[in-house]
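Margin note from the TA: students keep mixing up input and output lines. Inputs are the sequences; the output is the structure of the whole complex. Example:
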Amino acid sequence: MLSRVADSLYWMSRYLERAEHTVRMLDVNFSMTLDPSSTSEDARWRRLLLALGSRVDEWDGDSYALVHTLTHNESNGASIKSCIASARENARQVREEISSEQWLQLNRLFHLVTNGRQSAESQQPEDFLSAVLDGLHLFQGVTDTTMSHGEGWLFIQVGRSIERASSIAALLSAYELGAAPASPSEETPAGSHMFLEWMGLLRSCTAFEAYCNVYTADLTESQIVEFLLLNKDFPHSVRYSVDRLREALLALEQESGRLAPQELVRVAGRLQAALRFVEITDVLQGGVGEYVGMVMRECRQIHNVLYRDYIHYSVQTALAM
Amino acid sequence: MSAVAPRFADPFLRDYFLGGAYDEMFTAEGEIRPQYRLLLDTFRSLPTEELLRRKHSADTSFFTQGVTFTVYGRKEGTERIFPYDLLPRIITGAEWRTIEKGLIQRITALNQFLADVYHEGKILQSGTVPREIVYSCKHFRREMRGLQVPRNVYIAVTGTDLLRLNDGSFAVLEDNLRVPSGVSYMLSSRRVMKRTFPNIFREYGVRPIEHYPQVLLASLRSLAPEGRPEPTIVLLTPGVYNSAYFEHTYLARQMGIELVEGRDLITHNNVVYMRTTAGLKRVDVIYRRVDDDFIDPLAFRADSILGVAGLFNAYRAGNVTLANAFGTGLADDKALYAYVPAIIKYYSGEAPILENIETFLMTDAKHRQHALANLDKLVVKAVGESGGYGMLIGPHASQAEREDFARRIEANPRNYIAQPTLEFSRAPCLMQADASGTSIEPRHVDLRPYILYGDKVSVVPGGLTRVALPKGSLVVNSSQGGGSKDTWVLDD
């Protein structure tokens, strides 16, 4: 497969994952404003900006303006509209590599966010967000059922997993968890105010119900961190994403018939092992912020090595092989 | 126009007119030509609703296949569906045999001409073609002098534009020897027609064209550099914003070869590689859909980002084949065109089978005087342009436009030629099809067959018939409002 094609598929996938994450964050934040809480609305919006990697000084007290910036503003490269437009542009460059059904669905989604502007402003933001979310889910389904699960599909998996792992890590970091007692046994379940905050955190990762299935509705800080960081079965946990990432990278190594990218698999394996064998108490002791910081650094490193080995490799190294 | 041109009583033909140009379906007396009888009877007898249903299904088919071209001049390239007409254009077996022979004769001679001019230049020494025409041509590439190309084939792919004149014979309007496009429309129109009118298609015994991509691939493979038995072949596209991008993806898919852009290729030690996830892969043959000027920023236009730095040196070193070769534009310069009959005669000793259109060279003082005095009757063309750009159609132009062209001709005579305004043939088109009824009218058409040159010269029986859809229009280019129809070459 051409490196340019792999590059486009990878970024198409990352942009869509980013759009999905932003949609969910906004949706959760909207519903949280309905209930009184110890955390002010102000603090919540700042936290959201921090989690999305945007500049916190974009918040000027006007929630409608901010929502517009995050959904429809074209000059904001991280807005939902920009993300979906960028994903579509990447797909357009490799039109012959993806299925017609994928192209059709991505186009539909693009028209929903570009033409739907008036309707988006007149309708409830929640309705708009849930329509976009449906469209994104549909695209994932169409991708899995209509595209060959070969190299191209694997690059899509890699892009999605990296983006997801880093977004959840950034979200955990923005919540500044870990101020609680280091020993989980001393913790008590949250009171009604904190309950809402933490439910919001879980719902930002579609994790509320899945969490309850494992830990019951007792929300404690350490269990939430454990679930979002270390759960092996839940698709929006960091560990799950990194497991899938390493799987895809190993498969890619075989598909492309390359021997060189051992470093790539090694770096991914190091992160995977860290998440697999760490104890939650160790994470809490060292500080959650520290730990997710490590996760984000490792994800960046994987991205860099991926690019160095598959996409922007130098001619000399390629000829030496 | 003759005043006594016959009219038809049949409502299906109520707007049909004859006179002047050759009509593909009727003789001048209004008799139907035998090969069109079945077609006309079938269409006439179809109930309106049935015809509308089939038209709708053909529309949908074009739409879902994504058969589009890009219109330039907008912020982002705008994709349009290629306009088409449901009535096929029919060419009899005998007519086709003449066309085929004529094209093979012409392409063979033009290829010999290029090989000669880029080597010994015998034809120039003989005086058959004046040196100044060759050396002043902007598509002449000095860099090609003395370069041996595989099998001596310069023009692997040609799309020659033919017109049918009033006497029924076909003549060559243009040889498109650089990067001719349109073949994907030929192939997709055929697919749609077979699906829409299967019965009549079967009854006609139309010769197939579906093997075109395979013949193209075989031609390209036969042109691989020596000692590369399993050559890697790629199609080089300028990218998504090119007007023919659809065609590039279509052909790459049909041939099963990689579609690459300039940025996917690199050269190292005069070898071309493509950058894949499995490392660098050597490329042997490039079917390039990028113009000469843009192909290598080191050798040609330095501002080109579509090309590959160092490609030309790799080509000169014989490590990669380009199809078509560099510098083929020399042989489709519109001033050189006037010499093609002499070129054919020089190399083959035969008279040309397909005639040229009468051409006045503006470098010739007598021709120029004649042309300037008759600009209102002539078509003036810039010699290095194609696609209907840079043209003056005398009878339809304003006084100011004609004066402007007269000044330009005086300033740079080598850059222009003039030809008589041609009345070329008209074919029936379905111009009205709605609930109130259906009727057909004649519209001007040309024909672009595609000629492939690998280990031999071959012509796929058919071509792209382009239609000037507005009434009376003579411009068939898709960029200027033209459409297309399927072309049926009969197996008789």
